[in-house]
């Protein structure tokens, strides 16, 4: 392999820059040229491809977001669009592509691989919702951001005898919510993996308030329920002021924490190693503290993500 490409796709995540930097620097150390594809699959289709030298990734290790840009480009599901993308890569004599993104981005990488173009996937998303890895790049940074928000809400909640609902990202994965709940000491945890019974939650909070509880934090994953409506119902039932805070995109920004920088650096260098060994169509993960790689098609189609039942139970035990 003499030339490889790298792109970031889907929702941005802190640590993506560190991953791109690692791909570039690890490849250059093996005399492989690297090309950056700007704006994800959209830029791949529009041929926004530029060679990256060592200094193009200087001062990137600590920066949030992705300097390569990212985009949603649903048209990439069409084979003719992907064929044009492959044509662009071949025009630059790029032989393989490293895709950093979430499960949607992995689907794109899988389809390119199926069309005979080798891709390596790196898990870059704050949601921690990708098969074949214990942690994704960006998850721990987002977790710290959420914890910081919960800490601040706790200060004001306890001063004002208020109930606080915190809506946390994660799409359909409750990892960010559960971990933040443990770290932030939330009283109630609502996640997509467990059936949500609104009446049970309200009854439980009411009982707590009747027995003297003056404030509480409820951590809820996005898409689970309408948090502002829920706040009104809880307030009506308990008589305690209740407010919902939707953390939104603040969770996606910020400088990556040490864990994400190191994970991204390890995974980026590992991706280059795999390409040198002639591997294509793989996705990289970390499992039980070891770097691993899986067939990208198998990971998407067959690999279940085990639910962290022990973590969920702990949120209840400690509440
Ligand atoms: P996150 O979950 O963090 O937002 P993601 O990678 O899952 O990241 P998506 O918007 O789902 O984000 O996917 C990113 C891009 O991947 C899409 O805009 C599209 O270009 C491509 N993609 C998604 N699904 C497919 C598919 N089935 N086939 C081909 N390409 C796809």
Automatic annotation (TrEMBL):
Active site: residue positions: 127
Residues annotated as binding Mg(2+): 103
Protein residues bound to ATP: 11, 72-73, 102-105
Binding site for ADP: 21-25, 154, 185-187, 213-215
Chief location: cytoplasm
InterPro entries xref list: ATP_PFK, ATP_PFK_prok-type, PFKA_ATP_prok, Phosphofructokinase_CS, Phosphofructokinase_dom, PKF_sf
Ranges where the Phosphofructokinase domain occurs: 3-275
Pathway given in the UniProt record: Carbohydrate degradation; glycolysis; D-glyceraldehyde 3-phosphate and glycerone phosphate from D-glucose: step 3/4
Subcellular location: Cytoplasm
Keywords, sorted A to Z: Allosteric enzyme, ATP-binding, Cytoplasm, Glycolysis, Kinase, Magnesium, Metal-binding, Nucleotide-binding, Transferase
One term under GO cellular component: 6-phosphofructokinase complex
Enzyme nomenclature, EC number: 2.7.1.11
GO molecular function: 6-phosphofructokinase activity; AMP binding; ATP binding; fructose-6-phosphate binding; identical protein binding; metal ion binding; monosaccharide binding
Activity regulation note: Allosterically activated by ADP and other diphosphonucleosides, and allosterically inhibited by phosphoenolpyruvate.
GO BP term (any one): fructose 1,6-bisphosphate metabolic process
UniProt xrefs under SUPFAM superfamilies: Phosphofructokinase
Reaction(s) catalysed (UniProt annotation): beta-D-fructose 6-phosphate + ATP = beta-D-fructose 1,6-bisphosphate + ADP + H(+)
Enzyme class (EC, first level): transferase
Cited NCBIfam families: PFKA_ATP (TIGR02482), PRK03202.1 (NF002872)
Biological function: Catalyzes the phosphorylation of D-fructose 6-phosphate to fructose 1,6-bisphosphate by ATP, the first committing step of glycolysis.
Family, as annotated: Belongs to the phosphofructokinase type A (PFKA) family. ATP-dependent PFK group I subfamily. Prokaryotic clade 'B1' sub-subfamily.
Complex and partners: Homotetramer.
Protein name: ATP-dependent 6-phosphofructokinase
Annotated organism of origin: Reinekea marinisedimentorum
């Amino acid at each position: 392999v003499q030339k490889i490409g790298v792109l970031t796709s889907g929702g941005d995540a802190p640590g993506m820059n560190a991953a791109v930097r690692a791909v570039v620097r690890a490849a250059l150390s093996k005399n492989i040229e690297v090309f950056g594809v700007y704006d994800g699959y959209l830029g791949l289709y529009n041929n926004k491809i530029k060679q990256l030298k060592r200094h193009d990734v200087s001062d990137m290790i600590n920066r949030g977001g992705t300097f390569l840009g990212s985009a949603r480009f649903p048209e990439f599901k069409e084979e003719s669009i992907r064929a044009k993308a492959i044509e662009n890569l071949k025009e630059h004599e790029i032989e393989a592509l490293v895709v950093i993104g979430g499960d949607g981005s992995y689907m794109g990488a899988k389809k390119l691989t199926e069309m005979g173009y080798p891709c390596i996937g790196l898990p870059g998303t704050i949601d921690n919702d990708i098969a074949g890895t214990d942690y994704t790049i960006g998850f721990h940074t987002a977790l710290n951001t959420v914890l910081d928000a919960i800490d601040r809400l706790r200060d004001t909640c306890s001063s004002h005898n208020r109930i606080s609902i915190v809506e946390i990202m994660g799409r359909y994965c409750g990892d960010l919510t559960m971990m933040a709940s443990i770290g932030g000491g939330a009283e109630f945890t609502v996640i997509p993996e467990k059936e949500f019974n609104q009446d049970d939650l309200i009854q439980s909070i009411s009982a707590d308030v009747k027995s003297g509880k003056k404030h509480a934090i409820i951590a809820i994953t996005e898409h689970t329920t309408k948090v502002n409506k829920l706040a009104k119902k809880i307030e009506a039932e308990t008589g305690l002021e209740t407010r919902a805070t939707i953390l939104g995109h603040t969770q996606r920004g910020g400088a990556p924490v040490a864990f994400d920088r190191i994970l991204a650096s390890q995974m980026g260098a590992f991706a280059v190693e795999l390409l040198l060994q002639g591997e294509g169509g793989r996705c990289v993960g970390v499992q039980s503290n070891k770097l691993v790689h899986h067939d990208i098609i198998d990971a998407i189609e067959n690999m279940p993500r085990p639910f962290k039942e022990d973590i969920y139970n702990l949120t209840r035990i400690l509440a």
